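ligand=iron/sulfur cluster
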Amino acid sequence: MHKIIASPFLTDYLVLRPDSRQAIKIGKNRYAELLGVVSDSAAICPTWLVNAASQRWGIDLSGEKISDTALVRQPSPYGFGRASYELNLGCDPHGMASICKVGRDPKVPLMDEGIGGLTRLGDAADALMLRTGGCSGCALSGSCWTCRPLAKLYQEAKAPLTRYCQHGGR
Ligand code: SF4
């Protein structure tokens, strides 16, 4: 079990620790440094990482081999945030991938299309976030805190507006 995980996450780079909600935000250069030395069995954790891990989690990585201590995730060729592996649990069954557990349609059948099918999810997300249906023409959509797929579910369930919508006076 690795003590820490370094990973690209959208436009940032994070160091995470299993079972901890806290993270260390690092720059691209420091992520590249970790990626470059993680396969070197003689390399030890750099001082900046030792200090940051001590401050964030109270753990001592001084003198530890980085190959034993850190899992450094490769950048995704599809632009996805691989840190989400550590942050999100329980997504996409039977190989059906969707943008999230609320916006489940459209789905991409990964068993049929392979990993390349994930590239279709960006367009799916853009389409799902359009303020259509019950949110069509809403003048408050610019400051809406409810994502459109979730609002759609509330509207279909005829939930009280106070639960999800600014028109409910919340
Ligand atoms: S404020 Fe209500 S109607 Fe307007 S976009 Fe948000 S959920 Fe839809």
